[in-house]
């Protein structure tokens, strides 16, 4: 009887030893649950991004069915590529370290996968930061104004974008050169999350997607250029163009800033937003003689923009003096390639 008991005990102990020595398989889906989102750390760039719920579920579904086998014992983690921190209530509840495309570390043990490999390009895409911006300069380097709701705008209202190795796509998703990006364009920038805290702030872009041109700014450029060229004698010896846009409610402050930059590039003259009274106060207009010695004042009012029909209605005038001014009521329509202006009630003094 005692011999049988000893024999069974021996069998149980021996089985336990074999089980302990056997290589264990590991499924992420069996071990990790109860998290709210995942934070991904890039071991190479030193950056971290917090995934939203949808992104976290996508990543979890991608890795949870991968089967890993125990590879070796304890060891220090060196040279890891990515760390996945599983979060709940703002705290890390579990972590998986991705060493390479087939090796992870989990709770002090290394595991390998034989059948499937981890897509490191996919992991890299999760660590990329994306924001939308408007181009405000592309002559001396790409300068953008981030969307006001973006985290990047909280760093700086202007960002200089490095483009040495950037891949650029146009609206049709075709690769294009940097020269295709125009002032006023709406673009999407993908980068690694590193922002140099200067002014303007600086980043290096991996990808840039041109989303759309700013047709409204192009429309204003067209009508301003039209009246600037009309009765060109009023432009004699000027070094300034003053724009009165204060009654124009359809342009954002960013749009106005871009408009001034584009006009400066076109004419090489100082361009500023101002009114008749402000120019008088600055001593630029002689109120007694009603004369603007070194500039012209362009007033635009009663603007209405129909985005669906791509039409812009407006009143516009160019003023140099009491006896030197022109204006008209106009309508501009975008025909798919350019803006066409129709004029009525033209006047001259």
UniProtKB/TrEMBL annotation:
One Pfam family from the record: DUF3221
What domain of life does the UniProt record list for this protein's source?
Bacteria
Q: Which PROSITE patterns does this entry report, sorted A to Z?
A: PROKAR_LIPOPROTEIN
* Protein known as: Uncharacterized protein
